[in-house]
Amino acid sequence: xxxxxxxxxxxxxxxxxxxxxxxxxxxxxxxxxxxxxxxxxxxxxxxxxxxxxxxxxxxxxxxxxxxxxxxxxxxxxxxxxxxxxxxxxxxxxxxxxxxxxxxxxxxxxxxxxxxxxxxxxxxxxxxxxxxxxxxxxxxxxxxxxxxxxxxxxxxxxxxxxxxxxxxxxxxxxxxxxxxxxxxxxxxxxxxxxxxxxxxxxxxxxxxxxxxxxxxxxxxxxxxxxxxxxxxxxxxxxxxxxxxxxxxxxxxxxxxxxxxxxxxxxxxxxxxxxxxxxxxxxxxxxxxxxxxxxxxxxxxxxxxxxxxxxxxxxxxxxxxxxxxxxxxxxxxxxxxxxxxxxxxxxxxxxxxxxxxxxxxxxxxxxxxxxxxxxxxxxxxxxxxxxxxxxxxxxxxxxxxxxxxxxxxxxxxxxx
Length: 414
Ligand code: PMP
Ligand code: GLN
Fold this sequence. Notes:
By secondary structure, the protein is an alpha/beta fold. It is built from 13 helices and 15 strands.
């Protein structure tokens, strides 16, 4: 194998997705909805592939299907408060995943450092490494008020001095993910401002992964770091139609930012993927057209999904609390962490256990209880996993029947 693959061979999803199906679990593991995207989008997809001579079964523009980049530019232009040029400020990618990959490949060089905030969506780490860069880690830490009830993702914060000390001459970029996967933390404007100030002071780029941007609960706000002073020029904002429209299998994502950065991502894209599936892009364009007309209204899918998921969050929160798992209420995203320390006596790891406790516990729970979740140490640096092995992540973007089945398992646990 090529040397750049060294240390990136293992992947939590490859391992756990197969176990979840092997043990026929009720699956609150991998983050995807087990219900359909909105009917209007599915119909648009079918139209795209069915109409004679629509051209939508063939290649489209490499950097994004014209109707999609046009509507994305219009839609997000309003949110960023600036004119976006569809052809130069938007790049469509195969999911947010490929958008992230393009960003790291295009802008991170051998010897560059990239700051990752723990817990982080796992793929950032191998993507930095494959680009030849070095990840530098900083944890979100639960505040001293920890233990007060109810626990919230808002309790987890960065220490500004610790963060400042991570910026060096070699720092190329920092990755921000808000709402965060797996914690569900929504970074407040003042927290983002601290990051932004450091980026501008040290001339550092920001890769802002905002795939859960519509899922902020309890009336909270999603702040786009690219809108803070001096940040547009140095920020790439990454989004996902899979997450926005509950269509993760369509794998349509995008990166938005200034042309002088995006031009390099286009180089990576044209030399690897070249273009993304046309029909899926066409249907997503249609979805955004509808969302633009209904923005913030009760019939907006983004509004409806958020409201539905807030109810599901509250339901899972109650249920986990009832069985003694000590959940942390997420302010956003569709994930919830639960502290499993109290289960160590009941479910002890074997003496010679060579994995963090949460891995052991999750595998045990899949096999014995037929319930799947994700060990949270998967979202930490190799050296830090041992210190964060008492949490597991549940995904609640699931049908009521699935949540019923999970609740049944949890309530009859003991
Ligand atoms: N970023 C985060 C934080 C995610 O949770 C996901 C989920 N897969 C992705 C990126 C990738 O999104 P996509 O499915 O659009 O590739
Ligand atoms: N983002 C989803 C999660 O965190 C899916 C991850 C994946 O499939 N790699 O569960």
